[in-house]
What we know:
Helix content is 39%, strand content 14%. By secondary structure, the chain is an alpha/beta fold.
Amino acid sequence: KPPRSLAKxxxxxxxxxxxxxxxxxxxxxxxxxxxxxxxxxxxxxxxPDPIALEESLSQLRKMPPLVFAGECDQLTDRxxxxxxxxxxxxxxxxxxxxxEANTADSIRARLQTVLQMSVILTYAASLPVxxxxxxxxxxxKPRSKTIETRDGVEMTSYLGDAVNSLEFEAGARRPDPQRLxxxxxxxxxxxxxxxAFTMGGFADLRQVHAWNQDFVRDSLAGQRxxxxxxxxxxxxxxMQACGADPDEFQRVEFYAAHEALSMDYERALTRIDSRTGNxxxxxxxxxxxxxxxxxxxxxxxxxxxxxxxxxxxKVGPTAxxxxxxxxxxxxxxxxxxxxxxxxxxxxxxxxxxxxxxxxQKVDASGVPVVWICDPMHGNTRESASGYKTRLFDDxxxxxxxxxxxxxxAGTFPGGIHVELTGDDVTECVGGTAGVEDGDLSQRYExxxxxxxxxxxxxxxxxxxxxxxxxx
Length: 471
């Protein structure tokens, strides 16, 4: 079909009232030209060459989709179950993906960690877990300052590998739109590998022992995981002896999620579903609007309201409850279950004070949302040794506060959203692993924010499972 131009993308509310709204979504067709209103967009990369930018975007608009409409709709259904208290959402992965770490070993290690955490939550709390990765698209980073200064030298801040490089050097820090294409191809490679792992036997429940790497196996969390894995083995053996061997035990659903930060990238990868005519952002299954970009009259909220993917919005301690209700109505005007997740990031010292009013107002509004806790971003601090770090106790404390608030409000704490890695890094202080301030320099490998290592991630999963049982 020849390209056609839409003067303005159809708002979500109007699309949901269209005659095709109830039809099953199909594959996403070739891209059509979409024209977007000229709205203020915060946190956009300062591209120095508009011609080079348009050349890269023109190529992106022609690229095949990374995900499909049917997969996005399936995720909406899964999230709707979490909103009803019938499932739990686990999102985990890197703070900022890098091209260098986009390797089979790194992706497998992150995937293993999320799978282990999901097994712990499912087994202990008897709830299905919706598994999402901060993966295959998390190549952009919001920053408080666009310019970084070192020893009197000013350069563009590191804005993620899709924009520039981490090295503090003029050529590396110059925003390069060719990196948008690199991000697309790296995301495609990661998704292909994840699909192979999750559908090709790697995620078989019989592999639960194999996911426990040597450096974790001897830890307290690793030992507890091994005991649970033995119980699962016995249960599976019993089912097989009875003639039951469900396919669901051999593969898992896994979805890609990232922050929709660069409007250039996300708009270029928006496609029209061939069966309904509705736009989907095919850069990932689930995208969210960040704390720094959730202005109601801004480009990010408008974009999220336009696409048909399940979407999220980060909510920090400065948010006014009335503003969050208004945003929820804009993003989910037809009260579609699973459509909108509110990802709260209050900080351990503010969650019990700030979250209750927001939960109460949103709940009273009647807009269905999935409540998810991000216990990472509100708990970043500088260590005595000068490293940006997070205390494991703060992470746990925020999750505990989040559960307590929802228990009091009578709402369901639908999930957690954590930055983690499958490697034995020393970036967050605490946990039974005993990472101390003086250990941070040993394996501090993050490109931006500190992540939980494998052992800390498993320890957190066991704690959250205990909280779920009590909720």
